[in-house]
Amino acid sequence: MDAGGTSTRAIVVDASGAVLGTGRAGGANPNSHPPHEAASRIANAITGALGGLDPAATAACVVGMAGVSKLSDPSIAEIFEAAWKDAGIGPVRTVPDPEVAYASATSSPDGSVLVAGTGSIAGRIRGRRMVSTVGGYGWLLGDEGSAYWLGREAVRSTLDVLGRGGEPGPLARAVLTEALGPSAVDPAAGASLWRALITSANSEAPIRLARFAPFVSEAYREGDPAADEITTRAAALLVTNVMTARDPGERTPVVLVGGVLSPEGPVGAKVRAELAGLVVLTSTDGVLGAAWLAAVDAYGEGAPRPASP
Fold first, then answer.
1. What is the tens place of the pLDDT at every residue in 47-81?
2. Edge-to-edge strands, sheet with 92-96
3. For the chain, how many structural domains are there in total?
4. Which of 11, 113, 129, 250 is deepest in the core (most CB within 10 A)?
5. Where is the ATPase BadF/BadG/BcrA/BcrD type domain (predicted)?
6. pTM reported for the whole predicted model
7. Residues 180 and 224 placed together within one structural domain of the fold
8. Which stretches does DSSP call E strand in 99-247?
9. Are residues 122 and 260 in the same domain?
10. For residue 45, what is the domain's CATH number?
11. Domain range holding 143?
């Protein structure tokens, strides 16, 4: 199972790697959803994936969960253990979602993983476990190079242009239109736009800044120097984090995860260029990684990797 902030997916595979069933539910990150609700969604996804199969026949179960650290609270862990019991399965091994993302891309037990979606984190993988991390502190303390970071820098860049009375480029125009409406893009209204954009950005939850991130990529493709500079800095920060998670001279794989690191996007392309010479892989589907880890738990290292359902 891959339990994220917005959706949860479960698959059941047999010893041959064949997918026997799939299940879906809403987000199940216990940091962003009430724990009882998150646990219920996981149980529903498991039940859906099992279908008519006997839950008691489950040989192993791995749940890659965003916010898994929440289960270090015994009262929260008890809620989830009740969900496993209600679904009729056990034992269940819960792991951080970067671990299943890493396993979806490679069978190598050692390497590193770099995640850049709404937030960002880099992790050292040893024996398929994430043994140390760099970053991942959330929007207030870090998340360098993430969609949140890109969106924040897009707004800051726009404010810089307005503050010095410059002509808004593609990125600034897109930010102003999104934040203030189509009529906002009027260079003659620089000072009032500057104040309005600050007010707008501060009136919402900080994580909402992530919605401006796609405009950075779009403006980059239009040749906007501001977008080029932002994506270059984002890539440098992400590469620094993942290399900090590695030993000097390490040649193990680097697995990239998340929309910001898509090969088609400028940040993803720049990160791959910086990591040239290393084996750089792209995570395919976290639920496949979770299923394979469960298969290894049940059947050993020779367990075949499941095909995409």
1. 999 998 999 899 999 999 888 888 999 999 999 99
2. 19-26, 7-13, 2-3, 61-65, 92-96
3. 2
4. 113
5. 2-294
6. 0.87
7. yes
8. 111-116, 120-126, 129-135
9. yes
10. 3.30.420.40
11. 107-282
